[in-house]
Amino acid sequence: MSAKDKLDNKAEDLAGQAKEKLGKATGDEETKNEGKADQTKSNLKDAGEKVKDAFRD
């Protein structure tokens, strides 16, 4: 996994965490759920990159 991919995935995860916390603080379920979805998407991308790395080695 390239450093850029790791950085992009981490940034997306952090943005998702912030969005989820904002949704919790304001009582906005839609924003909270979008944040969780962003985090899940980031985690799936990260897992996919790890699988690709495992097959490269």
From TrEMBL:
Record-given protein name: CsbD family protein
InterPro entries the record matches: CsbD (IPR008462), YjbJ_sf (IPR036629)
Family: Belongs to the UPF0337 (CsbD) family.
Pfam family, one: CsbD
Region forming the signal peptide: none
Coiled-coil spans in chain: none
Domain of life of the native organism: Bacteria
Gene source species: Nocardia rhamnosiphila
Region (Disordered): 1-57
Domain CsbD-like: 5-57
